[in-house]
Amino acid sequence: MGGDRGSGPLIDGAVQAVEQHPGIEVLLLGPEELLRAELAQRGKGAETRLSVVHAPQTVSMDEAAVDSVRRKKDSTIMVGFDLVKQGQADALVSAGHSGATMTAAILQLGRLKGISRPSIASVFPTLKEPVLVTDIGANVDCRPQHLYQFAVMASSCSELLLNRAKPRVGLLSIGEEPGKGNAAVKEAYDLLKASSLNFIGNVEGRDVYSGDVDVVICDGFVGNIVLKISEGLAEAIQQMLKTEIKKSLGASLASFFIRPAFRAFRKRVDYAEYGGAPLLGINGVGIICHGTSSAVAIRNAIKEAAKMAECQVNAAITRHLQQEVVQA
Amino acid sequence: MGGDRGSGPLIDGAVQAVEQHPGIEVLLLGPEELLRAELAQRGKGAETRLSVVHAPQTVSMDEAAVDSVRRKKDSTIMVGFDLVKQGQADALVSAGHSGATMTAAILQLGRLKGISRPSIASVFPTLKEPVLVTDIGANVDCRPQHLYQFAVMASSCSELLLNRAKPRVGLLSIGEEPGKGNAAVKEAYDLLKASSLNFIGNVEGRDVYSGDVDVVICDGFVGNIVLKISEGLAEAIQQMLKTEIKKSLGASLASFFIRPAFRAFRKRVDYAEYGGAPLLGINGVGIICHGTSSAVAIRNAIKEAAKMAECQVNAAITRHLQQEVVQA
User: Fold this and answer.
1) Which of A261, A301, B6, B206 is most deeply buried (CB count within 10 A of its CB)?
2) In whole angstroms, what is the distance from residue A280 CA to residue A291 CA?
3) What reaction is this protein's catalytic activity (chains A, B) (predicted)?
4) Three-state secondary structure along B190-202?
5) What would the pLDDT profile of A52-85 be if each residue is shown by its tens digit?
6) CA distance to partner chain A, nearest, from residue B293 (Å)
7) Residue ranges of domains in chain A, CATH in brackets
């Protein structure tokens, strides 16, 4: 209910998910009457794999995360993560307030054993295979141990969810040499070096989009800036290039020749193609989608959530942490 | 002498600068014999506004900044900043080791009164006018007071060097609201809010390229990542778009129609067009250029250095800090 475009694209995405994936069942969370009316409008009733769970409250985008979640026990995210806790759902997908979604997940499900700070991961397109970047905003001030935990979580996620064998893990810094970076990064380097992860060392900003690293680790302040600067720059470059192409070809020729290429490019870099951002480190599965997600983005996020529950990323994370403790 | 392409483009850039700008005189720093031979090759001798100063040592890119500068008193950057100190030069331009150049500047010239951490600024292209971003790598761990000082320095630089009236200063963070950001950014917000700068509040990653802010403030860790991720992403997007355009138009048509537009785009975003990165907060003028700078980039950096010395950015910074202290 909390997305920027209302419940429409979310319901459409859910309908698409159950229609296209026979193994997926979706519980729609929100005010029951409203959801039933929306489903009826789409000619849908009590479908076998599409049902409604009453959750009358919504956390809006401008509320404080912790406060709103504590106050609104009947909000979609609190009710949804409770279903996950009770084993009545395998995963929750939300296009609402990401901070509140993370808070609700921690309150209802708790953290995985050995994880002090759950993080949010995001899949970025690159010149080769997509890269998983974490944290993209949950933890602004991080200690070295947190960065190490992000790496363990993201490596398991990359391996199982994105099918990478021995994911190459890089630590985002300002030089490739071990001594480069801020205080937290320098110490995290040593922790990662000593771990059993496939740690390839520091990576620089320019390596994120090269496709030569599978997992990029940073604190949530840096990660969020990386995410948003990329969105802003991609938009700016497209505008600048379009302007130049129109100048050299003329507007109508440019439109005819170039529009399909720009459309294909946008599809290639569109977050909607990659589903949502997995929450890592909570004792269950949660996926956060962009507030402006389309039905396709929601459908892909639901599919991704199902896969993440099935491939048991959390069990792999816990196993890895236990083994490293045993070795240490 | 310390650039990645040897002395060739630096000498060519210097020759262009004196030939195109009658008000500019250039002293070339390096091994005298080598420089004289290079000049002779270009048919240049003892020109009025082009001379050679003997500096036999070079700091190479892989040396430790502080150590190399302390050891090599006769290196180009140490000799050059000494000339600035003695009043025999108004500014130094270097395409060598940026850390060593900054260290040499601080050793020879000292910091401006009221500045505890000099920073490096960089001019980024945007959809409108270019934006000045600092720090892009000199200071990885910053206190709020340092960020405030960066803002004072960059605001004066934007006003005088880039001709912006009342530059809009933004603090790079992960949300527009005052409470967003890491610990240092939250405190810096209050300092900037209380200052006489035209502080427009937090800006997000996506605002950097919009052109709606003139100065963006961040620590050197974040700034360096922003710089390098932008370079990497711009390159990746161009490659992806070219691939799509070739797919839709065919390679030869694409090449014919689109190459001029991509060339124009690259010219628009090329750092060479913007000169180099000004050192802010040292008691003199220094400009750092990309190690791979072309002759045009060097020429523009020399022009920029001359303008920066002429418009007295340092005097403006000192004046601003004194006034704020008086007011506080």
Assistant:
1) A301
2) 19
3) a fatty acyl-[ACP] + phosphate = an acyl phosphate + holo-[ACP]
4) HHHHHCCCCEEEE
5) 999 999 998 888 888 999 999 999 999 999 999 9
6) 18
7) 8-115+281-304 (3.40.718.10), 119-271 (3.40.718.10)
H helix or E strand, kind and range, residue A124: strand A119-124
pLDDT given at position B328: 59
Q: What's the Cα-to-Cα distance from B228 to each of A60, B64, B151, B276, rounded to whole Å?
A: 35, 21, 21, 15
Q: What local confidence, expressed as pLDDT, does residue A299 receive? A: 96
Token output for A93? 């997908």
When scoring A67, A218, A237 by the number of chain B Cβ atoms within 10 A, the one with the most, hence best to mutate, is: A237
Torsion of CA A10, A309, A289, A92, to 10 degrees: 60
How large is the average pLDDT for residues B117-142? Answer: 94
Report the chain A residue with the minimal C-alpha distance to residue B177: A62
Distance between CA atoms of residues B284 and A220, nearest Å: 37
Per-residue pLDDT tens digits for B301-320: 999 999 999 999 999 999 99
Query: What pLDDT digit, counting tens, does each position of B215-231 carry?
Result: 999 999 999 999 999 98
Phi, psi torsion values for B138, nearest 5 degrees: -80, -30
Q: Would the pLDDT of A280 be above 90?
A: yes
Largest pairwise CA distance in chain A: 66
Average pLDDT, whole number, for chain B? 92
CA–CA distance, B82 with B60 (Å, rounded to integer): 19
